[in-house]
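Quiz preparation item.
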């Protein structure tokens, strides 16, 4: 159905950033890349992910598909990856995702199978809305800030912005 190669660190940062918020996602794969959308158990936060094909080393899609992925399991598997490793995700059927981690420096490879979940979720539409500002930052930096807030005992983080700064505050 598809095969994609991308930096393992990118995949690791994305999975680490969302795994505590949503335990599982339906990952849709097509020629444009990967898309996922899920809502947390409390129905408070909507997570949307779009990993474009241009950001991958390669993407071959024989047939668009949707895969149910346990984000905690994927995150644990990606802990085996070192900085600079590549991850190749491939799927021949909707039951199993094959993950191959390969190191360019040592030539070592790890092969893993991740069983797919049957997640019954509908795609949610979010109404268009004008924002006063837009913040773009790496998922790793965002995860670091949220983790630091959580270590300080914050269950809720307030994000405020003005012309010169973005302020993350515990609530």
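Solution:
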């Amino acid at each position: 159905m598809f095969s994609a190669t991308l930096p393992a660190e990118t995949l690791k940062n994305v999975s680490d950033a969302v795994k505590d918020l949503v335990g599982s996602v339906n990952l849709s794969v097509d020629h444009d890349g990967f898309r996922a959308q899920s809502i947390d158990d409390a129905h408070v936060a909507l997570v949307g992910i779009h990993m474009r094909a241009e950001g991958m080393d390669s993407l071959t899609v024989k047939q668009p598909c949707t895969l149910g992925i346990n984000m905690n399991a994927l995150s644990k598997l990606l802990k085996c990856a070192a900085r600079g490793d590549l991850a190749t995700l491939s799927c021949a059927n909707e039951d199993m995702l094959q993950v191959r981690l390969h190191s360019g420096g040592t030539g070592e490879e790890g092969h893993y199978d991740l069983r797919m979940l049957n997640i019954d979720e509908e795609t949610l539409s979010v109404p268009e809305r004008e924002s006063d500002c837009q913040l773009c930052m790496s998922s790793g930096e965002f995860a670091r800030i949220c983790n630091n807030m959580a270590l300080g005992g914050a269950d809720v983080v307030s994000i405020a912005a003005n012309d010169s700064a973005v302020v993350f505050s515990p609530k």
